[in-house]
Each structure stands twice: as C-alpha cells, then as structure tokens.
From TrEMBL, chain A:
The gene is NDAI0I01230. One of its GO terms (biological process) is protein polyubiquitination. The keyword Aminoacyl-tRNA synthetase does not apply. It comes from the Eukaryota. Residues 24-157 form the UBC core domain. GO terms for cellular component: fungal-type vacuole membrane; nucleus; ubiquitin conjugating enzyme complex. PROSITE patterns: UBC_2. It comes from Naumovozyma dairenensis (strain ATCC 10597 / BCRC 20456 / CBS 421 / NBRC 0211 / NRRL Y-12639) (Saccharomyces dairenensis). Keywords: Ubl conjugation pathway. SMART domains: UBCc (SM00212). PANTHER family: UBIQUITIN-CONJUGATING ENZYME E2. This is UBC core domain-containing protein. Pfam families: UQ_con.
From TrEMBL, chain B:
Its main location: membrane. SUPFAM superfamilies: RING/U-box. GO terms for cellular component: membrane. This is RING-type domain-containing protein. Keywords: Membrane, Metal-binding, Transferase, Transmembrane, Transmembrane helix, Ubl conjugation pathway, Zinc, Zinc-finger. One of its GO terms (molecular function) is transferase activity. The keyword Nucleotide-binding does not apply. PROSITE patterns: ZF_RING_2 (PS50089). Residues 1-22 are annotated as: Disordered. The keyword Metal-binding applies. Gene3D superfamilies: Zinc/RING finger domain, C3HC4 (zinc finger) (3.30.40.10). Residues 104-148 form the RING-type domain. It comes from Naumovozyma dairenensis (strain ATCC 10597 / BCRC 20456 / CBS 421 / NBRC 0211 / NRRL Y-12639).
UniProtKB/TrEMBL annotation, chain C:
GO terms for molecular function: ATP binding; ubiquitin conjugating enzyme activity. One of its GO terms (biological process) is protein polyubiquitination. InterPro entries: UBC, UBQ-conjugating_AS, UBQ-conjugating_enzyme/RWD. Its EC number is 2.3.2.23. It comes from the Eukaryota. Belongs to the ubiquitin-conjugating enzyme family. SUPFAM superfamilies: UBC-like (SSF54495). It comes from Naumovozyma dairenensis (strain ATCC 10597 / BCRC 20456 / CBS 421 / NBRC 0211 / NRRL Y-12639) (Saccharomyces dairenensis). This is E2 ubiquitin-conjugating enzyme. Pfam families: UQ_con (PF00179). PANTHER family: UBIQUITIN-CONJUGATING ENZYME E2. The active site is at C87. The lineage of its organism: Eukaryota, Fungi, Dikarya, Ascomycota, Saccharomycotina. Keywords: ATP-binding, Nucleotide-binding, Transferase, Ubl conjugation pathway. It is an enzyme of class 2 (transferase).
Length: 157, 173, 154
C-alpha cells in the first residue's frame, strides 16, 4: 500500500517537474501573437487578438485560406478562437464564423468538435493556434472532404 | 560543480518536458551539419547535386524550423565569436585568483568553490568568468557581459607567451 | 531533466533576504522560473503612489537569454503597450548574462521615471507625449490613480 502511495507521489513530482520550466500561458500567447503580428507564419492562415486591449489574451480571430483543388479553393474562412485560463495545457476552443460543411464542424453552431478533430482530441502543450489552423486546412483538403458541397460563400453561422 | 550544459539539460534526452526542445536542437544541429557538408562550393560533389540535395532537405524540414534555423545563422554571422577564439582565451590558474570570494558573474558560483576551476580571462578587459559560462555566451555574442565591450575589437591576436608566463607565475608564485 | 540552475536559486534567495526598496519579486509555488512582481512608481513621476503588477519568466536559456517581463497593471507610458509589453534595450539586444532579475526590475523602474517617447512601443502614447507632454503626464497620473492604486490585496 505504501509503495503505491510512494509511486503516486513520485509521479506527481515528475509531472510537476515536467511543468516546471514551461513557459507560462501569457508569455506563450505573446510569442504566438508576435509570430502572427509579424506575418512570420504561413500565408495560408492568419491570426490575431480580437481585442488588442485584453491583457488576458483570451479571444482571437483567425482566417484560413481554402486549400487549392478543393471546393474550398479561393474562399477565406473566419474563425473565432478562445484560449481559456489553462491554455496551452488544454486546447483552445475554435468556432467557424464563415459557414462551412465539414464533418468535424457542428453544422448549427460552427464549433469544431474536439471529439472528431484529431488536433484538438490529441492536443499537446507544444501545439499552437497556427498548428490548429493549418490542420483544419488539411482537413478541408482530405480526399473525402474536398468534394463536399459547400454553403454559399459569405454566409455565416 | 555542475556545468551550464548540465544545469540546462542540454545533454539530456530523457522523456521529460524538455525532451521536445532537446530533440529540436539536435535535429537542427544535424541539418546544419548536413547543409554545411553538402552546401559548400568546395565540396567534392558537383554543384548541381548539392542544389538538388538541399531542395530535398528543405522539403523535409518544417517551414518554421527552417526559419528559426536561418535566423540563428543570421544572428551568428552578425555577432559572435569563433570557436577558435573561444578556445584560445587565456586560462587563469586557481592560485592566481587572489580574491577568495571572486565569483563568475554568469553562474554566480565562486571560482574557488571548485578545486580545479577552469577560469578564462577576456583579453581586452581582463574580466574573468568560468570558461564554461563565457564559452556559451560568446557563442551567441561578441561582448563582455560585464563591460559590454566587443571582445574582438581590441585584441584579436592573443599573446600566447604572456599566457604561459602567467601560468608559470601562478605555479611558482 | 534539467533542474533549476543554482544561479536562479541564488537570485531568488537574495531577492528575499536583501529586497530592493520599492520592488517585490516572488516565485510561483508551482513554477520557480515564474515570478509575481510589483514595482512602486518612482517619486516625482506621473506614476508616483502607484503599485504596478508585473509578471516575469526566466526562459530555459536564462541567463544567456533575457527574462521575459510584462506589466499586468494598465499603464500609460510611451514604451509600454496595451498588452503590457515593455520596450527596453536590456530586455532585447542589450541583454548581458551579468544582469539579474534585480537589475532588470530596477531598469524598468527607471524607465517609469524617464519615459523615452523617441523609441516608442505604444505609438499613440508616444505621439501624445511628444505633442503635449504635460497633458500626457496628466493622463498617466490619472491612469495611475485608476488602475495602480495601493490597495490591500490579501
């Protein structure tokens, strides 16, 4: 019994040590913001703070350029991203503003369903909002998803 | 005494939070070596082969990693000291360190805490640091941490005879 | 796994045993590289009588790399932007590993005493500062009253 306790405690200590040197939420988000602001990221997606005065850096806007050779080609999709107080230990929530037909997107709310989108489901601390946007773009381009019929351009959830 | 590398886990590769960073660093170093080996014009292979190889390599590396890596090269070219320069810094013997409490301004450890300290002295300003610590810093910068003078601007050639003299003096002094 | 470098432990101990007047810095219990900081506004500056909260993080490569610091209290200053980011040379290109948490925080306090609108981070504030320094200082005083007032925050 005491052995189990000890093992548990060692595990806790180990987890704590792993988190030890992780960049806190705010500095991690500032890094992501700087990358987004400087346009250092890829051209196929962009992201920035929804409110430049919000020091908690919770709400973000993003865009995804529809991948070529798909029904999404030349479309620009707007998304809203929310990084909660425990980001990046837990994934952000992400919601499409522009209407889109995609299996992992709730067809009423536009919310990306964590259970059916691998990047949210298997979230790791090292993932960023940029990863998330790029992976969604890849999702649009899969052989089955790229042929899905899409709502009229410019409509919103 | 633990080294900068040890304390910062630069040699660690165990399954911990730092793992990904270490992995990244290693990957980056490997790629850099590849680029250096095959990317130079002096290499024995034909130039065309190199270009193709570089293109193939660059497709393998994620964009952000490439960028980070080029930035690193850029900053390296801008201001840092060569390995040769760092290796040639004069060393100070323990018994020529007069002040018992003298400490390295980088790691805050007393030089004489170590029985066999490896202490280097910057040639132009005479500031002393643990060789280990100053080596890491000068691989990123060309300034003295204490006076901020460029360590390369004053004396580029180190007077070896003087160093040896100082060492002798240390031994018999 | 890298443990906490001795230097960070020493710095933390010295910050507690020999604190800087007008400045506090305490590490978080669960992350000893992450500090809660308060800085008192310098006397005879528009920030006088204000207590400003900041957060400071020592990255993996510290002290080879500068600490990351940010204001959490809203402040009207040409070199501090709306998210609390600070434009200060020692935090960027002029970092030296011989600097410390202590010296960085003193530099920040000095920046409050002497704003530098010619090297701005918050462009609109810097413009105000150059156009009408007295009005800008009045606004800075007003913000200090509004957001940085000394309160008991147990």
């Amino acid at each position: 019994m005491s052995n189990i306790r000890l093992r548990e405690e060692i595990c806790c200590l180990y987890v704590m040590l792993c988190y030890f040197q992780y960049s806190p939420r705010s500095f991690r988000l500032l890094e992501e913001l700087e990358k987004g602001e400087k346009g250092k990221g890829p051209e196929s997606c962009s992201y920035g703070l929804a409110d430049g005065d919000d020091i908690t850096m919770t709400n973000w806007n993003g865009t995804i350029l529809g991948p070529p050779h798909s029904n999404h080609e030349n479309r620009i999709y707007s998304v809203a991203i929310t990084c909660g107080p425990n980001y990046p230990d837990v994934p952000p929530t992400i919601k499409f503003i522009s209407k889109i037909n995609l299996p992992c997107v709730d067809d009423v709310t536009g919310e990306v369903k964590a259970s059916s989108f691998h990047t949210l489901r298997d979230w790791k601390r090292s993932f960023t909002m940029e990863n998330l946007l790029l992976d969604l773009r890849k999702e649009m381009a899969t052989p089955t998803n790229k042929k899905l019929k899409q709502p009229a351009e410019g409509t919103t959830f | 005494m633990s080294t900068y590398e040890e304390e910062h886990g630069l040699n660690d590769s165990d399954e911990t939070g730092n793992h990904r960073n270490t992995e990244r660093r290693e990957l980056r170093n490997e790629f850099r070596e590849l680029f250096q080996a095959y990317g130079s014009n002096n290499s024995r292979n034909g130039n065309n082969d190199n270009v193709i190889l570089l293109q193939m390599l660059s497709e393998l590396i994620p964009e952000d990693l490439q960028q980070e890596w080029f930035e690193q090269i850029d900053s390296k070219n801008r201001k840092s000291c060569s390995k040769e320069f760092i290796d040639s810094l004069p060393r100070i013997k323990a018994n020529s360190i007069k002040d018992k409490n003298a400490e390295c301004a980088i790691c805050f450890c007393k030089f004489l805490e170590d029985k066999y300290p490896l202490v280097a002295e910057l040639p132009h300003c005479g500031h002393r640091f643990d060789l280990e610590c100053i080596s890491v810093w000068l691989s990123k910068s060309d300034t003295c941490p204490l006076c901020r003078d460029s360590v390369l601007s004053h004396k580029t050639d180190i007077d070896v005879s003087k160093t040896e003299m100082e060492e002798d003096w240390g031994m018999y002094g | 796994m890298a443990s906490l470098p001795k230097r960070i432990i020493k710095e933390t101990e010295r910050l507690i045993s020999d604190p800087v007047p007008g400045i506090t810095a305490e590490p978080h219990d669960d992350n000893l590289r992450y500090f809660n900081v308060t800085v008192e506004g310098p006397t005879q500056s528009p920030y006088e009588n204000g207590i400003f909260k900041l957060e400071l993080y020592l990255p993996d490569d510290y002290p080879m790399e500068a600490p990351k610091v940010r204001f959490l209290t809203k402040i009207y200053h040409p070199n501090i932007d709306r998210l609390g980011r600070i434009c200060l040379d020692v935090l960027k290109t002029n970092w030296s590993p011989a600097l410390q948490i202590r010296t960085v925080l003193l530099s920040i306090q000095a920046l409050l005493a002497s704003p530098n609108p010619n090297d701005p981070l918050a462009n609109d504030v810097a413009e105000d500062w150059i156009k009408n320094e007295e009005a800008a200082k009045a606004k800075a005083r007003e913000w200090t009253q509004l957001y940085a007032k000394k309160v008991d925050d147990n």
